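Treating backbone geometry as a discrete language has practical consequences that deserve illustration. The amino acid sequence and the backbone structure tokens for this protein are reproduced below.
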Amino acid sequence: MGIKYFLARLGIHSIDVQPSPVIGLKTVLTDRDIFYISNNGRHIIYKPLYDLGKITP
């Protein structure tokens, strides 16, 4: 079972999975929003991801 399977269980079907700037996460672009999901599809982050190395988010 992959990332698309787990997202489909949440009702998210129109997705584009891309690499993330964080090791162990993928960026998921949908028609509704942007998510970050673990490589195994078990954990999802649904808020902005900030780079603390930069002054502004």
Summary: The chain has one domain: 3-45. Helices lie at 3-9. The first strand starts at residue 15 and ends at 19. The domain at 3-45 is CATH 3.10.450.70 (Nuclear Transport Factor 2; Chain: A,).
